[in-house]
Write a structure and sequence with these properties.
The complex is a heterodimer of chains A (306) and B (509).
Chain A (H helix, E strand, L loop, with lengths): L1 H28 L4 H6 L5 H10 L6 H13 L13 H36 L4 H15 L2 H15 L11 H31 L2 H8 L4 H29 L3 H6 L5 H10 L3 H29 L7
Chain B lengths: L1 H13 L9 E5 L14 H10 L4 E3 L5 E3 L2 E6 L5 E6 L13 H14 L15 H5 L9 E5 L2 E5 L7 H4 L26 E7 L3 E6 L12 E6 L3 H9 L5 E3 L5 H8 L3 E5 L2 E7 L9 H10 L2 H9 L3 E3 L21 H10 L6 E7 L3 H15 L3 E7 L2 H10 L4 E7 L10 H4 L16 H12 L3 H18 L2 E13 L3 E2 L16 E2 L2
Parallel strand pairs in B: 1-10, 15-16, 15-17
Antiparallel strand pairs in B: 2-3, 4-5, 5-7, 6-7, 8-9, 9-10, 11-18, 12-18, 13-17, 13-18, 14-18, 19-20
Helix pairs in contact in B: 8-10, 9-11, 14-15
The chains are: A mainly alpha (306), B alpha+beta (509).
Chain lengths: 306, 509
């Protein structure tokens, strides 16, 4: 197990180097000039030229790439062209907000998704199952943007239960977390229902029932235990994608996370900020997947990593 | 469902008491780049600087130049030297004095910081400023300390807008040496003191009781970062923002539901399409006039901007010296076709119209495309993100470029010299690449003449000459619409972005 984890961590290095090289090349080739945002409108040619020199924008690509990798190896992602602050600091300021939102969205998705899915599997075809099925389709199909706006309109402007947007206590977390987690709720409910139905019809469950175990024990211990692997996969992937910042949800709800940071960086052609964010977020995504893989072993003793 | 309700209730209970307390709350659409005046290239930074720092001169909400750290200023007879009288007894928030030595050091720092990437052009007219920027000089030759309360600036050439340039954020007076991490923890002398800033979230400012103009009425001013216009409106309607800008598409609903809270102001801003006068057939003025005649601007203004604007027949907006009401290029497709035929393009033309991804621009561009199609001009719309589209226009790669121009300082010069002087072709703002020696001479004279009546007359004739040459599709000067909460009083939307310092604004519970 330990050997497996170390191996996976070692594999991170070529993965991240690949990400680094590809994004560097793409950003190098992308149109648009970072200097305009740095010196502002109405800058004369001399000012533009000075800024380019200052940022080494005219150096050959190989030289720039070498310099960048050299910094990254020492944990230095460079400074933002725009704010002049270290990118490591800027990401560190924003990641906690993203983490909070992702965790809340995932918690809602797990609780609601599993509950609805299990209930549906136990009483397939019932009214509540049918409503849940329709709800799941809608949840998957509605665009996040639209749901977010609707949430604000209904729960913040009309009912005044929650603030429309902003960063603060739990009250501020509710609407964005539901908005972000809704797709996962729907997906998890569908997934759980299918996996549970299969498990409930298995020999294992029939044996457990014949031993005289009650419904709840059978469903939660025997059937759910067996249905967990696909559920963990979905949770791992979704959580990984939430952790890398949700541009739409963070923008609609004025949430100060990394998604908005990346969007601003792209808008301003802040090359080091884009590059640094992508590298950092790739790392987060890969680690989240590794954790999900390790959870397989915990959920199913037959999975062994050697 | 029961679980969900339970969760919501639990969350509601646990979350009580958090968030933003009532009081004056303003917003920006984006986090400021920095709070260091030397890096003020964007509007949020400029607005923040206006609150935390003082300049020698300032703008009031109407866009008039008023005194700041300087109480008065006079030009020399030749217009090349400006002498400022400095207010006594002003102190920075950390107690250091704002005296003539501090002012000189502050200007030096702004010029040196230009190497870091700032917006230093408003200071470059000072004699010797460019040398400081290029590290070729360690003193600013044009700045002279006359005595304890008098400072004078000698310029490279006579410039009548110089006092207005000193009201811009980059010319704000900062204490030197600046404290560590100045962009994050600024210290100024302005009406508001910096308290805290959490990025992309909230900037908190507190009243400066010792401000020379008298302490602001409110004790705290909070500024939230809210990128989405829909969310801005929702925050306002929930009573959590003091003021909000109303997007054009929402005009009618707000007039119906919040009529009493609205205020309008003709903005010092122009929406236009620059016609690149160096590209092929567009070099012919008849073609450019034909394009103007072909576009039904009044209909576009009504449909796309809900009529919120004044039709343009020139580039100087109403409210600024130099504006003149004149007859526009009438919507007349017949005349457009005739002009095109006269110029030898009977069989039509193919042009590219570049624009950014702004939703309003998408609709304007489509309408222009449809109108031009009708007179035989096939327009291909090229949509790019703002920086790419602007880069293409600067390089001269765009036939037509849909854009808008915001006043940096309220003066007719700001709507003529940067936009049409040959020195500004491309990067400076002259996206039409007008290079006309007659016009250049007029533009230069309008900047250097010390006589204001002479200047107004000159600006009028420049505006007329530009209109004649048709380097733009003249669209309109927008009318801004803002709402202010009933519990807030004393705020008005400023004519220029540096014109509202929130000192006379009150919040009554």
């Amino acid at each position: 197990m330990i050997r497996y984890i170390l191996l996976r961590l070692a594999l991170l290095i070529p993965t991240l180097l690949g990400v680094l090289a590809v994004t560097f090349a793409l950003l190098y080739l992308a149109p648009g000039d970072p200097v305009a945002a740095i010196v502002g409108e109405r800058a004369d040619a001399a000012t533009v030229e000075r800024a380019r020199r200052e940022l080494h924008l005219d150096d050959p690509m190989v030289v720039r790439f070498g310099r960048y990798v050299g910094g990254v190896v020492q944990g230095d992602l460079g400074r933002s062209y725009i704010t002049r602050r270290p990118i490591v600091d800027e990401l560190a300021q924003r990641f906690p907000a993203t983490l909070r939102l992702a965790a809340a969205a995932m918690a809602i998705a797990i609780v609601l998704g599993l509950a609805v899915g299990i209930r549906g599997a136990m009483r397939p075809g019932s009214l509540s199952d049918r409503i849940a099925t329709i709800g799941a389709y809608l949840g998957i199909s509605f665009p996040v943007y639209w749901v977010g706006l609707l949430m604000i309109l209904l729960f913040a402007v009309q009912l005044r239960w929650f603030p429309p947007s902003g960063y603060g206590g739990l009250l501020f977390l509710v609407l964005p977390a539901i908005t972000l987690g809704m797709r996962s709720v729907a997906f998890l409910a569908r997934m759980t229902r299918a996996a549970m139905q299969e498990a409930l019809q298995s020999d294992l469950v029939r044996t457990a029932r014949s031993k005289g175990l009650t419904g709840r024990v059978v469903v939660l211990r025997h059937a759910l235990g067996n249905a967990l692997i696909p559920i963990i996969t979905v949770i791992g992937l979704d959580f990984g994608s939430y952790l890398t910042g949700s541009i739409l949800t963070e923008t609609i709800f004025s949430w100060p996370g990394v998604g908005r940071y990346v969007l601003t960086a792209i808008d301003k052609r802040d090359l080091p900020a884009i590059q640094g964010s992508i590298l950092f977020l790739s790392l987060v995504f890969v680690v989240a997947n590794l954790v999900a893989d390790l959870c397989y072993a915990a959920a199913d003793p037959r999975v062994a990593y050697d | 469902m029961a679980r969900m309700a339970g969760f919501l209730i639990a969350a509601a209970l646990l979350g009580c008491g958090s968030g933003i307390p009532p009081g004056l709350t303003y917003y920006f659409s984006a986090d400021p780049r920095s709070l260091d005046p030397a890096l003020s290239t964007d509007v949020p930074t400029g607005e923040s600087v206006t609150l935390i720092f003082d300049n020698l001169t300032q703008f009031d909400p109407e866009g008039r130049l008023v005194s700041g750290i300087a109480t008065s200023w006079v030009p020399s007879p030749d217009g090349r030297t400006w002498t400022f009288t400095i207010r006594r007894g002003v102190r920075f928030h950390d107690g250091r004095p704002v005296d003539v030595a501090a002012i000189r050091a502050s200007f030096m720092r702004a010029l040196e910081m230009a190497r870091e990437g700032g917006r230093v052009w408003p200071l470059l007219p000072i004699d010797g400023a460019s040398a400081v920027v290029d590290s070729a000089a360690t003193t600013l030759r044009g700045l002279t300390i006359v005595d304890d309360t008098t400072i004078s600036f000698t310029l490279v050439e006579p410039l009548n807008i110089f006092p207005k340039l000193l009201a811009m954020p980059v010319a704000a007076i900062v204490p030197t040496p600046t404290p560590e991490d100045f962009g994050e923890h600024p210290v100024g002398s302005g009406p508001w003191k910096f308290v805290s800033w959490s990025h992309d979230d909230l900037l908190v400012l507190a009243r400066n009781d010792d401000w020379y103009g008298g302490a602001p009425l409110a004790d705290t001013l909070r500024i939230r970062m809210i990128p989405e216009t829909f969310t801005q409106a929702a925050e306002y309607e929930s009573g959590r923002l003091s003021v909000v800008e109303i997007p054009a598409g929402e005009t009618q609903r707000w007039e119906r539901e919040h009529g009493a809270e609205l205020q309008r102001r003709a903005a010092f801003r122009a929406v236009y399409v620059a016609i690149n006068t160096t590209r092929g057939p567009l070099a012919d003025v008849r073609v450019r006039r034909a394009i103007n005649h072909a576009v039904n601007v009044p209909a576009i203004l009504d449909r796309v901007a809900q009529g919120r604007g004044v039709l343009a027949a020139g580039t100087i907006p109403p409210g600024l010296d130099g504006f003149a009401a004149r007859e526009r290029y009438a919507f007349d497709p017949e005349r457009a076709r005739a002009l095109l035929a006269e110029a030898g393009h009977k069989e039509g033309l193919k042009l590219q119209l570049w624009r950014s991804q702004r939703a309003e621009f998408a609709r304007i561009a489509q309408a222009i495309q449809a109108d031009l199609e009708r007179v035989g001009v096939a327009v291909e719309i090229v949509e790019r993100d703002a920086s790419t589209a602007r880069a293409a226009a600067r390089k001269g790669d765009a036939d037509l470029f849909l854009s808008d121009w915001w006043a940096d300082y309220p003066d007719g010069e700001n709507f003529t010299f940067p936009l049409f002087h040959s020195a500004n072709a491309g990067t400076g703002g002259n996206y039409a690449f007008v290079r006309d020696s007659t016009l250049d001479a007029m533009l230069e004279r309008a900047r250097s003449t010390p006589d204001s009546a002479d200047k107004v007359a000159l600006l009028r004739s420049i505006d007329a000459a530009v209109f004649e040459r048709a380097p733009w599709i003249f669209l309109w000067f927008p009318t801004d619409l803002w709402a202010m909460r009933p519990e807030v009083s004393g705020w008005e939307f400023p004519a220029v972005f540096t014109g509202q310092r929130w000192t006379g604004v009150r919040f009554t519970q």
